[in-house]
Amino acid sequence: MNAREHLVDILPEWMKSARFRITVLYSTVLFVLAAVVVGTLYFALLSTLNHQFSQPLEVRDFNRNGVLDERDQEAAALLRVFDNQVETRTLENMKRYSFVALFVLFIVSLGVGWVIAGRVLSPIGRITDVANHIQATDLSQRIRLDGPADELKHLADTFDGMLTRLDEAFNTQRQFVADASHELRNPLAVIRTNLDVALANDHANEEELRQTAIVVRRAAQRMSRLVDDLLALARLEAPAKLAETVDLTVVGREVAEDFSALAGGRSVTIELETGAPATVAGDRDTLKRAVANLVDNALRVVPERTAIVIGTGRRDGWVWIAVEDQGPGIAAEDQHKIFERFWRPDGSRARTHGGSGLGLAIVKQIAETHSGTVRLYSEPGKGSCFVLWLPASGREGDTDQNASPVPEVSPLARPVVA
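Given the sequence above, the corresponding structure tokens read:
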């Protein structure tokens, strides 16, 4: 430890504060400026007095012989001595009073500077108090600083905004953990119950044991899908590299081929409709997963002998890929909830269809990772159309780069024939 650090350590706490440093700086600057002003006045007065007393005496009267009387000469000498004494005493008094005034000014400036620095730094004290009272389980504290829109208020508002974002993130995380625990508890309960029943039945035949194994396997598969989706969401929250040029038409065709056998087993056809070239800078695997989630979601709800349409296109600097089904549709009041984690509406899209409740949340996360959005067009009884809108690669050639990427009508909507 060097001498400077040792000196700082032995100082009292109040002398280590920014308030003390600002006070000393303020007082020192004020003292130096005042000393310069007083010194300038002192030397100006000294120069003026020296100039005046260096002037020769003007003799206005002589005696009849043309010379000064001896008494007049003595008076002139006394006058000069008196003036010199007055000058010296005046300068000494001014010097003494100046030193006293500067000392008093410095002491007063310390007190005034301490008060002013305290008022200026009070928002920082409030920020410190709020930060000290924040707990991991309670982020409701806010500074809410009033006053002019200066740097300190901007700092306090920024701190409040950070706390709000952290509070929302922690609440979302807690809700996510609670929902995930609830979702995992159900298949675990199914597995445990069926195994307990099988173990308790000493006379269970092979068919009963087989049926128990099928139920347990189905529950385990559901748990596996849920864990896979949780891992996918966690990976998507990390920054992604979007350096690859992806053709959404190719992505749509590959997804259609991947699901063709599963769709055929349910008497459902998958159709592909392509428009203008739809290329985007992104991650091919995650975009394919998003489209696959939409097709998988559609296959769970569409009736037999219907079609699922995968379409692509381009509009005003944006490319889109859509998945349209002829399922039961989604009510308007539920559409803003459809992309929430673990949310399922009543009816045909319920848990009985085997989804993890994370598929559409993953789709939304993938769209946002690619600086895009996902939009749902749906009416009860008329099916649903999910559309991913993504910034097109090479947007410079489009006519309107600032146009809204979300039209009011689905890009796959067919014109109504009168």
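The mean pLDDT is 79. Try to locate this feature in the token string yourself.
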